[in-house]
Amino acid sequence: SPSIVWLRDDLRLADNPALSAAIERGGPTLVVYLLDEDSPGARPLGGASRWWLHGSLRSLADDLAALGGRLTLRRGAASDVIPSLVAETGAGAVYWNRRYGALRDVDAALKVSLRADGLVVESFGASLLHEPWKITSGSGDPYRVFTPFWRACLAAGDPRPPLPAPASIDGLAAAGDDLDDWHLLPTRPDWAAGLREAWTPGEAGALDRLERFIDEGLPLYHRRDEPGIEATSRLSPHLRFGELSPHQVWARVHGPLEPAAAANRAKFLSEIGWREFSYSILFHQPELATVNVRRDFDAFPWGEPDPAELEAWRRGTTGIPIVDAGMRQLWTSGWMHNRVRMIVASLLTKNLLIDWRVGEQWFWDTLVDADEASNAASWQWVAGSGADAAPYFRVFNPVLQAERFDPDRAYVRRWVPEVDGPEYPRPIVDLAASRIEALAAYEAVKAAK
Ligand code: FAD
C-alpha cells in the first residue's frame, strides 16, 4: 500500500527521516504539504514568510519531480485532510517529522486515531540536534539558562549524521491545489523586489548559502556583531523552513575547514544552540508568543502605543540612525542583523514602553525567518520577561551600540543614505529620560514578586 509523507517545516529531500522511512517501506509515496490555518494553535504566516513558502514549495516540487516524485498541495485542518488522503489513496502508513509548539497536540491526536485505524504512523526528530525532552537538568527540569543548556547538549554527544537524499521516488499524487491559487505572493503593491534580490528559497539555495558562508563568512565570524559586514550565515530562513537541517550544518562545519574558519566553529555552533534553546522553551511553553515566561512580568505597565511613534519604528523614521537602518533592512530584505534586532527591540520595549508582543507581531509579518520559537523567545529575552533574559536594567543605548559595532557607519549609510542631511528627523524619544521611565516602570514587576 502507498505511504504518505506529510511535510511541514522540513521542505527538503536530504536528511529527511520521514521521507527516507517511506521510501524504505517500499510502494508508492505521496508527498503532501498542507496549508493549515484551521487547526487549533495554528498561527497564519506573515507576509514575508508566505513569500518564502511559495518559493520553497516551487523549488521542492521541481526537486521531487526530478526524482520521479510529486508534490500534492492541500489546504485545511490536518485532522480532516490527512484522514481523507488516507481514504483516497488507500495508504497504509503515514510519516512526518516532529513539531514542537502548540501544533504537536494536533499531531499526537492524529497519530492515535490513524493507528486505531490500523495504519503505521511514525514521527521523527529532524529539525533539532537534540529532542527537547532529552536535555534536562539533573533534577529533570528544563534548563532556564542558556550556558548549562548548551553544555548539556554538547555532553549528550554528536547528533546523528545527516541522511542522504533518496536516489529516486515512486511518486504518487492525489488531487490538490495549484500553488498559485494560494496567493502567497504579494500583488499590489509588490513589496517583494528586495526579497527576490536577497534570497533563493529552496534546498539548493540553502546548500549554496551554507557553502558560501563556510568560505567567506565563517572566517570572519568573530566579527558577527558588526552589521556592516557579512560575517553571519544568513541561514535563518532556510533553517526556519527546514530546507536545511541543523544536522547538515553540524556535519559540514565538522568537515574540512580553513584554519580561520575552524577557529570560529564552536562560536557558530553555539548560535545554532540558541535556536535549540528557543525550541526547548517553546516545547515547555507552547503559548510563548503571547504569555510571559516570567509571570511576574504580567504586572508590567505597558503603555498604550502612540500610533505615530509605533509607525516611525516600523518604517524606520525614528531619527535614531541604527534603529532606522535596521527597520529599513527588515522591510526591504525580510531580514535584520542580530545585533540590530536587539537594539530595535530594546528601543520599542524600553524607550517607547510598547508591549513586546506588538514588536513580535511586526517581526512575524516582515521577517523571512519568522520563527515561532526564536522570534518569541528573543523578544521576551530583550524585554526582560524571558528565560535567561538580559537583566532589565541593561537598556541598550542605540547611540553607543552604533559607535561600537558600526564605527565606520557603513551599515547606517547603506540603509539611511539621508542620515547626515537636513531632512533626517530628530529622535522621536529622549533616550536618557525614557530609560529612567523604563526603570521606574520595572518597579511594578519587582513589587509583584
Ligand atoms: P548566524 O549568526 O549565522 O547563526 C546561525 C543560525 O543560528 C541562525 O540562522 C539561526 O537559526 C540560529 N541563531 C543565531 N542566533 C540566534 C538567536 N539569538 N536565537 C535563536 N536562534 C539563533 N531568529 C530566527 O531564526 N527567527 C526569528 O524570528 C528571530 N527573531 C528574533 C527577534 C529578536 C528581537 C531577536 C533579538 C533575535 C531574533 N532571532 C530570530 C535570532 C537571530 O537574530 C537570528 O537567528 C539571526 O540574526 C539570523 O541570522 P544568521 O542566520 O546570519 O545567524
Automatic annotation (TrEMBL):
The cross-references to InterPro entries, in alphabetical order and at most eight, read: Crypto/Photolyase_FAD-like_sf (IPR036134), Crypto/Photolyase_N_sf (IPR036155), Cryptochr/Photolyase_FAD-bd (IPR005101), Cryptochrome/DNA_photolyase_1 (IPR002081), DNA_photolyase_1_CS_C (IPR018394), DNA_photolyase_N (IPR006050), Rossmann-like_a/b/a_fold (IPR014729)
Where in this chain does the record put each Photolyase/cryptochrome alpha/beta domain? 1-129
- Which cofactors go with this protein? FAD
Superkingdom assignment = Bacteria
Pfam families documented for this protein: DNA_photolyase, FAD_binding_7
* Chain ranges passing through the membrane: none
Sorted UniProt keywords? Chromophore, FAD, Flavoprotein
The entry assigns this protein to a family as follows:
Belongs to the DNA photolyase family.
**Protein known as:** DNA photolyase family protein
Which organism does this record belong to? Answer: Microcella humidisoli
